[in-house]
């Protein structure tokens, strides 16, 4: 299986954070799976690190370097991902989801035939087959 990790999943995996579920750990360490991280995660981490370095203890460049050392593959944002973004429909009228990083990563997974591994409770409302909620 080819998995695209949500930013918080990457951070938890790199930290061995107890919030990372056993299911997520199992999928990430399974050598049969190819693990990807998005350039959007690097961008998101950089912005959060610059704004709140007391909450995010790793820069985007450090995140990227650690992901490469772990053998994860970077997925750059491409035109076909932006086109897939236009097809996403959020199926929860009582709640909005305005996180552009999450949206582009769901679109990347959809466009590339990857599974998007996330713990974000809002992501399943996109009702996309590519989403794995852990």
Question: If you had to describe this structure to a student in words, what would you say it looks like?
Answer:
- It is built from 6 helices and 5 strands, in the order E-H-H-E-H-H-E-H-H-E-E.
- The two termini are 16 Å apart.
- A 5-stranded parallel sheet has the order 3-2-1-4-5, sandwiched between helices.
- Helix 3 runs antiparallel to helix 6 (100-112).
- The chain has a single domain (2-133), classed as 3-Layer(aba) Sandwich (Rossmann fold).
- The chain is globular.
- The chain is 45% helix and 14% strand.
- With 134 residues, it is of the alpha/beta class.
- The longest helix has 13 residues, at 39-51.
- The protein has helices at residues 7-15, 22-29, 39-51, 60-69, 79-85, 100-112; strands at residues 2-5, 34-38, 73-75, 115-118, 131-133.
- The model has no long low-confidence stretch (mean pLDDT 96).
Strand content: 5-15%
Broad CATH class: Alpha Beta
What is the spatial order of strands in the main beta sheet?
A: 3-2-1-4-5
CATH superfamily: 5'-nuclease
Radius of gyration: 14 Å
Mean pLDDT: 96
Output the CATH topology.
Rossmann fold
Helical/strand content category: alpha/beta
Tell me the domain tally: 1
Any low-confidence stretches, pLDDT <50, length ≥5? none
Largest sheet: 5 strands, parallel
Output the helix-strand order.
Answer: EHHEHHEHHEE
Distance between the termini: 16 Å
**Helical content (DSSP H or I, runs of 4+):** 40-55%
What spatial form do the alpha-carbon principal axes imply?
globular
Count the strands?
A: 5
- Per CATH, the architecture is 3-Layer(aba) Sandwich
Specify the number of helices: 6
């Amino acid at each position: 299986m080819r998995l695209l990790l949500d930013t918080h999943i990457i951070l938890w995996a790199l930290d061995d954070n107890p919030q990372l579920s056993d299911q997520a750990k199992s999928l990430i360490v399974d050598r049969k799976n190819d693990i990807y991280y998005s350039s959007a995660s690097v961008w998101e981490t950089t912005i959060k690190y610059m704004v709140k370095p007391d909450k995010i203890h790793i820069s985007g460049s450090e995140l990227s370097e650690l992901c490469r050392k772990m053998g994860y593959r970077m997925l750059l944002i491409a035109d076909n991902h932006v086109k897939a973004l236009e097809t996403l429909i959020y199926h929860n009228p009582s709640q909005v989801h305005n996180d552009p990083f999450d949206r582009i990563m769901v679109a990347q997974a959809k466009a590339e035939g990857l599974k998007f591994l996330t713990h974000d409770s809002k992501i399943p409302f996109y009702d996309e087959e590519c989403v794995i909620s852990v």
